[in-house]
Amino acid sequence: KKLVFSGVQPTGNLHLGNYLGAIRRFVALQEGNDCIYCVVDMHALTAQLVHEDMPSQTRSIAAAFIAAGIDPEKHIVFNQSAVPQHAELAWIFNCVARIGWMNRMTQFKDKAGKDREQASLGLYAYPSLMAADILVYRATHVPVGEDQKQHLELARDIAMKFNLDYAEHISRTGYGVDITVGNEPVHAYFPMVEPLIGGPAPRVMSLRDGTKKMSKSDPSDLSRINLMDDEDAISKKIRKAKTDPDGLPSEIDGLQGRPEADNLVAIYAALADKSKADVLAEFGGQQFSVFKPALVDLAINVLAPITGEMRRLMDDTSHIDAILRKGGERARARAEVTMRQVRDVIGFLY
Ligand code: TYM
């Protein structure tokens, strides 16, 4: 049984990239594992300090989790700020992480833009809070889209440095776990985080430009399919999606140098739970005039029930609020077990 953790920010609308790269995979991981899924509202402050609609954005991510098929009774669904232990561990990690490590984060460079002096300290420290989210449960498996890979490598570096710096204290308190790093057995406190980046669509690209990631911040709404889009919008966006003039190849190799074709095939494969090779075996040699309508039907078949259920859940917020409240209580109890030990390892009197 693996301990799985992942988070999604309550900023803007969820799009197909969030669904295929993350949420759909959260659902699949429930079987046989212990999963904790979090709406990371504290991270959302790094994008925008004042949110008029923080409560409804938070609820809508939780509603998407439930509508997609996450079971909040068997697993844990909660919002980050309800568990202050995340922030407490993040502070300790701020002292473990080195500024040089943070300076290499490409997401920080992108988001901070040209005037880096004006970026918030929170945006800079974002990956340290993310490491705390995972490690406050000592989770080992983290399903994310490819854009989060560098952050998870940093989480490993933080865990490793904590384990080394506090090695003696960890042995003295007896809280360590035996793990192997490379081939070396190590008596460590925090486990090594393993990113789960995979499936046919770890990086869903913009429908307008196959070299850019599908993202909430793209000014063109035609570039992405939002989880809340209705059938007409989905159909229009796929019909208008950029393609090249050729038909679909029969082999994967034929997608090289054709980012838009590759993206649409990857989206089809992920929605159908197939591999890209399977999709090409079916559609190889066909024109986009045949493939796109099939993709529209598939996308609507998969997304419409989720959208409908999200709307229903958002109509009466008491159900979602109860799920978040209970999830928060369970998460707090588990996070506190770790924090008591961490305080002890460090030597904080408590
Ligand atoms: P966020 O909220 O930006 O995105 C949520 C998830 O969606 C994935 N994703 C994509 N996957 C494929 N193609 C795309 N175009 C695409 N766009 C987004 C993201 O990789 C992510 O898995 N830092 C995280 C949230 C976070 C977190 C954590 C994740 C905070 N703490 C701890 C894992 C563990 C983020 O901003 O995701």
Description:
This protein has 2 domains: 3-200 and 316-346, HUPs (Rossmann fold, 3-Layer(aba) Sandwich); 221-313, Tyrosyl-Transfer RNA Synthetase (Orthogonal Bundle). Helix 1 links the parallel strand 1 and strand 2. The longest helix has 30 residues, at 317-346. The protein contains 14 helices and 7 strands. The strands form 3 sheets. It has a 3-stranded parallel β-sheet. Strands 4-7 form a two-stranded parallel ribbon. Strands 5-6 form a two-stranded antiparallel ribbon. The protein is globular. With 350 residues, the chain is mainly α. The protein starts with a strand and ends with a helix. The chain is 53% helix and 9% strand. The model has no long low-confidence stretch (mean pLDDT 96). Helix 3 (54-68) crosses helix 13 (288-315), helix 4 packs across helix 7 and helix 4 (85-96) crosses helix 14. It binds tryptophanyl-5'AMP. Residues 5-9, 17-18, 21-22, 40, 43, 130, 133-134, 142, 144-145, 147-148, 202-204, 213-214 line the site of tryptophanyl-5'AMP.
